[in-house]
Amino acid sequence: MKSPSRRAVLTAAGVALAGFVGFEIGQRTAAPDPLSVDGPLIGITSLTSDTYVRAIRESGGIPIVLPNADGSTEKVEEYLELLDGLLMPGGADIPPSEYGEEPHETVKLLDDDRYHFEKAMGTAWIEKTDKPLLGICLGGQWVNVASGGSLVQDIPSEFDGLNHRDRTHKITLEPDSRLSQIFEATELEVNSLHHQAVKKPGRNLRIVAHCPDGVVEAVESTDPDRFLIGVQWHPEKMMPDDPVQAKLLRAFVEAATVAKRER
Q1: Which residues sit opposite 207 in a β-bridge?
Q2: Would you place residue 69 in the very low, low, confident or very high pLDDT band (cuts 50, 70, 90)?
Q3: 3-state secondary structure the chain
Q4: What percent of the chain has pLDDT over 70?
Q5: How crowded is residue 11: how many other Cβ atoms within 10 Å of its Cβ?
Q6: What is the 3-state secondary structure (H, E, C) of 67-78?
């Protein structure tokens, strides 16, 4: 009897995980559309909240949570081959040594295992594939730092006490950006849960969204054919109540579907 492929095993595991999470949150949300086993495999580099799994599942993808418990990077090359898209979620802070700075007193570092795994996974994904990557909050900062960019280590310290935690605010999108095309808008209302942000954009990235106070809210690839986007807000937390924010996750999964077909 022929052994199941690694992709088939990952797909089965992803469906099982999505079903489990769906059971856990089923009392809190409306029933989602059935998960298709033909959907693209979306790797999630850390499970910090079930909202990421739910958002990918409800957008038509198969969420695959990647283990980083021991910081091992030995499976990274296999993940690059097997996965159709990568989502890097929110979390603590990237060591400022990654962009040549000493840490500000407010910095709360990622744990070592997650740091080493996400650095390796994100960097390899950007440099060795052209498949879609969506970074959210910390994940968006990883997109920038892994590309050689830098961060504002603490917004209140560098913007005269400005607060970007636990609030909502408007942002402005560059009209020629991929993000603006996805949202079909140049202004959005977003949530805000961060104290760091992009300072200098990395290689082959451009800043495509700002808050009116000057804080950077998103970067994306300068290659119009590549889905490589980092946002500072949390669209997965605004789903499913905000259909506008749902557009970003759907566009990401659709791009991963195209990548799957082009294998």
Answers
A1: 219
A2: confident
A3: CCCCCHHHHHHHHHHHHHHHHHHHHCCCCCCCCCCCCCCCEEEECCCCCHHHHHHHHHCCCEEEECCCCCCCCCCHHHHHHHCCEEEECCCCECCHHHHCCCCCCCCCECCHHHHHHHHHHHHHHHHHCCCCEEEECHHHHHHHHHCCCCEECCHHHHCCCCCCEEEEEEEEECCCCHHHHHHCCCEEEEEEECCCEECCCCCCEEEEEECCCCCEEEEEECCCCCCEEEECCCHHHHCCCCHHHHHHHHHHHHHHHHHHHCC
A4: 86
A5: 20
A6: CCCCCCCCCHHH
Is 50 exceeded by the pLDDT of residue 31?
A: no
Full-prediction pTM beyond 0.85? yes
* Lookup result for tokens 């495509």: 208
Architecture of domain 6-261: 3-Layer(aba) Sandwich (3.40)
